[in-house]
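Appendix B, record 7
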Amino acid sequence: MMREEFDSFGSIKVPNNAYWGAQTQRSLENFKISNERFHIDFICAYAYVKQAAAYVNGELEEIPKDVSNLIQKAAEEIIQGKLDDQFPLVVWQTGSGTQTNMNLNEVISNRAIEIAGGVIGSKHPVHPNDHVNKGQSTNDTFPTAMHVATMIALHRDLFPAIEKLWKTLHEKAEKYQAIVKMGRTHLQDATPITLGQEISGWAYQIKLAKDNIEIFKKNIGELAAGGTAVGTGLNAHPMYAEKIAARLSKVLCLDFYTSPNKFAALAGNDALVALSGLLCSLSCSLMKMANDIRWMASGPRGGLGEISIPENEPGSSIMPGKVNPTQSEAMTMACCQIFGNHTTISMAGSQGNFELNVYKPVIIHNLLQSIRLIADSCLSFEKNCARGLVPNLNKIQQIKQQSLMLVTALTPIIGYDLAAKVAKKAHKENITLKEAVLSMNLMTGEEFDKHVNPDNMV
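Structure tokens (predicted):
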């Protein structure tokens, strides 16, 4: 069953059970490109923007109060997830996101009309452009929604997930602070380190990356709303920009403020590009940690085997009993995707022309995916790997005692050159450092034990 809706191009048939209208329908027919749609979190953020705009326009008497209330009610249903199936458009559309803006406008308009007891598609008493889009343009509402969605995702998803993983790693670092093991540089034996010290490095890298994002997030709170088409604010009330930022801050309990330069806010997406870079940096830290853990847990017979990690599922369809470091592999794959997303975001962010960047949909699509990937992989890794990480003390002791770089402790006693000869002799003849020292008559066994004590080298 179809109904007829109208836009500036004329009439078009729309499904009777759809709240969207003519422009959404045209987009569905014109952009049959893949099946990647905006995540519902972005649609929800856009609904918050539309709801705040209606509130402000009602307060400023730009639209009737009853219309304002109807728009706010319809937007609230979107926020609550009651209309998720009404946003079918793909990411690959016009670069400003006009079709998605109109999708919101039409759904809110028609649902508001229905709430008022009117006829869907009549544009009365709530018009999608004249009322829902009052004082707005896609060019300022879409980037505003991008920033709102990003800020919500940071606080709701990213920060808690990173904090949870950091806390577990910090606890492990404290717990294993006294377990001395062989260090490695260049994938070669190095001087000793404690397992706790090694884990503390991972924890600090992650904390530093999170702190950098926390510091930078102020820039994400800067909103384009009020700039309308090209940044001049044409057709928006002079107080609209300040008031919508204040309203969003109050409703979401987050810090938003109006951009001091709407021309930059529309023409560029620099803050989101920079945030993507910080997410990329965080992913570098996560990649390093995940790779270290899977190397240290390698084996059980032919690898390093210094730590054990949880055995969560069978690792092979052909080799019975095999267990793989699957959480590390999942996290490192997510990191690879985030590196790719940052490349896309950087390219898209560089393509603004004159008064508008027209790569906004792909930017927010990739940025929100990066945030979700980091948050989800951190939670999964913490629960299914980091929490169950334990040392294999016998293997740690065995490898530590075989390390040739313990000879570094002798350098102040016998000098670098002689110490190097001891290490090379021990390696070549497959004997211990102590045996090499004794055979070279450099010191007694008691003197060697006094100077070469791994516990004193950390």
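Remarks on this record: The radius of gyration is 30 Å. The chain has three domains: 2-134, 140-393, 403-456.
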